[in-house]
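G., the chain you wanted modeled:
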Amino acid sequence: MAISAKHIMSLILILGLLITLSLDFTVGQIGVDYGRNGGGLPPPSRVVELYNQYGIQRMRIYDTDPETLQAVGGSNIELTVGILNRDLQNIAASPTNADAWVRDNISKYPNVKFRHIVVGNEVSPINGDTSQYVPFVLPAMQNIYNAVSAAGHGGIKVTTAIDTEVLEPSKSYPPEDGEFRSNVAPYLNPIIRFLMDTDAPIFASIYPYFAYINNPQQIDLRYALLDPSFEGVTTPNGVRYQNLYYALLDALYAALERSAASMSLEAATDASGGTKKTEVKGGESGWRTPGGGGHARLESTADDVSNVDNARMYVNNLVQAVKKGSPKRPDQPIETYIFAMFDEDQKPGDEGEKHFGLFTPDGNPKFPVNFN
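Predicted structure as tokens:
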């Protein structure tokens, strides 16, 4: 049967539409953090069902819980796993220990689509809760990287996670002036060099929510909620930031660029002679909903804005915002993980940080989210 030019054009249009639709599920780069420090939470098998039901294609967990790994196995979910801070010293101490960790937690699960291994979470010399782990982060990353490579899992990126507290407060605005604190840079610079050498990203917890409740007098709530109708903020250098997530991200990028420039030419350039650029992935971002109490010293502001409607707006705006790049990386979608799947009432620390969940323990969403 002869095929007319009209039929051929129709087929081309349909093919193009199918490609566009298939890309739409990945261009947003959205995943969800799955923490388990909550009472009455569903088993991992049910959690995987929820990820599939709502089209969430990426999951981050903070350890290598065997039940979760078994539940994720055979699914299409891309998984980021973590090494707990308390385990860093053991892995840093010996390549043999790292080999054993990779054998027991990665190689043992061949049907899991591992994406990253995050070695340590928000370790920092200025954080009293994590500063004791500073000497172990880089050696643990190096040992895990070598173990992963030797085991034939070279496609898994080995990284670590930071937060925006590592930025020098006086240099965080405008974003293009961002730099690391002077007492943090000696810790981070060798890690950044390792990430550049291994072509790995760095995970960063980016929370406009916390930035806003710490400074509500100077930050417009619409800016913090990533409201697409907000006119944005223009820096003295003429760069327009439509939302606070982009601004915090670019402050980190500026700090990374300064770190790279402070190191040797070999570390700061790629094979073509261009500047190496470590990608920042949003390892955590979310908006608190009611529950517990306010944050210390911030009860009034936190309680005023910590509501379901603001959380709904923030999360849905974030899903759309990360499909595009920030002013410093305008053509680079931002892989981002929403914090978190559930509230975690048994999580240690500030009570206000326990109520960022998207779903209730019975599997119902707190508010509608279009993850695509």
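Residues 52 and 77 are 8 Å apart (CA to CA).

Shout if anything looks off.
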